[in-house]
Amino acid sequence: MVLERSLLEAAFTLFTLMKYDSTTLKQPALALINAAERLIAQQGVENVSLLDIAKAAGQANKSAVQYHFGSKENLLKAIFEVRLEYINDRRTEMLNSLEESNSVTIVNLLKVIICPPLEMVGDDGIHYYAQFAMQLVDSQYAQAVWFGQANFQGTIKIRAMLSELTPHLSREEFELRMLFIRELTFGAIRIIDNNAIALLAKKRAKSVPANLIDQTIHPTLEQAFGIAQMILAAKEDFSQNS
User: Fold this and answer.
1) Domain 2-240 adopts which CATH fold?
2) pTM above 0.85, yes or no
């Protein structure tokens, strides 16, 4: 009994310390990641069970998540780390381009933070990762899975650059305005996605039409970034009015 408990504890520790990336994960594990991301994006972290995820991934084994990841928290960590492979590379590419062209501005730095997650869409054109991230950051897992990641350092660097461009803001005021901006941009995408999902169901289509992306998403984001720039540049103290 003691040996069995020791083995379980060792296995749990191994899962917790493991780093996940798309090149080492097997197809069943990737299917679980995709299914969990989609379900959590739509229903929230706490409203999706491990069994729901296994069924959505087409897994006959009801304990598939535990087998591949050990726990729900580790599955969330795997989603985050796998998606960050692209997001970090894209942010580095965008930031390097800004620095080389001497185009480091408030609005451009905001785009470096926000655009890469929004570039990741499902086969149907829906921004499941962005919605997953919004659900995760407001859940009980945020500290361990989201803010506890070393990969968050890239975003911290960009936020520090934004802070240097807004010296009129205290740290607390800066964080408050960044929260407003997050809700503004990702909230707009959530509304657009929900409308798109309803449209897909009505027309029984498999993906969002390209003209919807060009005519709705891109203009909406550009307007959102313009508002976001004004939010950071404003001299008025938001915290005293919130």
Assistant:
1) Tetracycline Repressor; domain 2 (1.10.357)
2) no
